[in-house]
Specification:
Its EC number is 4.2.99.18. It catalyses: 2'-deoxyribonucleotide-(2'-deoxyribose 5'-phosphate)-2'-deoxyribonucleotide-DNA = a 3'-end 2'-deoxyribonucleotide-(2,3-dehydro-2,3-deoxyribose 5'-phosphate)-DNA + a 5'-end 5'-phospho-2'-deoxyribonucleoside-DNA + H(+). The chain is 61% helix and 0% strand. The two termini are 30 Å apart. The protein contains 12 helices and no strands. The protein has a single domain, classed as Endonuclease III, domain 1 (Orthogonal Bundle).
């Protein structure tokens, strides 16, 4: 089985238990997803979703974020961590979007990654969910599962993204990325993964090594 064949198999199997995988950040407007994704860095979507309803109500437009009192904005987003840097990024990005793009998100990775606090992961989230472009989104779950399953051997998100692009069929990029998040949260956890319950353990390198270790230690 090639890595591409394995990827297709993994996607099909995981779709049996997660039939409609999608972005798990809550938002109504395109720029809200951008802000939510900036907030989600080194945090969790669940934690971000707890504060964004109140945040987006308090700052209902990009202009409100651009003109926000920095210290007040820091307090508003403090629960997600790294709030000082994130507040600066959100405020500066809002200004750039207003001044350079008339409040509309740019539709390319190159332009998005020039915004403050926006790396390739965040840019790919926007390309996938706002512009409908199939995108490989390398978050902590995608990184962990891609290494465990055996698609890559790297801790570099950008390297993983480009390697997965060569493995996963283009039209499955976004579905694959979302499935990695769903399965990472439910089964293939960072600590105490539920390997024996995993629907794809038959093609997982990590499970094979684990099984071999158990046999050797018997």
């Amino acid at each position: 089985m090639t890595k591409t064949q394995k990827a297709i198999y993994v996607i099909k199997k995981l779709l049996e238990i997660y039939p409609e995988p999608k972005c798990t950040l809550d938002y109504d407007k395109p720029y809200e997803l951008l802000i939510a994704t900036i907030l989600a860095a080194q945090s969790t979507d669940e934690r971000v979703n707890k504060i964004t309803p109140k945040l987006f109500k308090k700052y209902p437009t990009l202009e409100h974020f651009a003109n926000a009192n920095l210290e007040e904005l820091e307090r508003d987003i403090k629960p997600v961590g790294f709030y000082k840097n994130k507040a600066k990024s959100i405020k500066e990005t809002a200004k750039i979007l207003i001044e350079k793009y008339n409040g509309v998100l740019p539709d390319s990775i190159e332009a998005l990654t020039k915004l403050k606090g926006v790396g390739r992961k965040t840019a790919n989230v926007i390309m996938a969910n706002i512009f409908g472009v199939p995108s490989i989104i390398v978050d902590t779950h995608c990184m962990r599962l891609s290494n465990r399953i055996g698609f890559v051997k790297s801790k570099d998100p950008d390297k993983i993204e480009f390697e997965l692009r060569e493995i996963v069929p283009f039209d499955m990029y976004t579905i694959f990325s979302n499935l990695m998040v769903y399965h990472g949260r439910a089964t293939c956890k960072a600590r105490k993964p539920k390997c024996s319950e995993c629907i794809i353990n038959n093609v997982c390198d990590f499970y094979k090594r684990l099984s071999n270790d158990i046999i050797l230690n018997v």
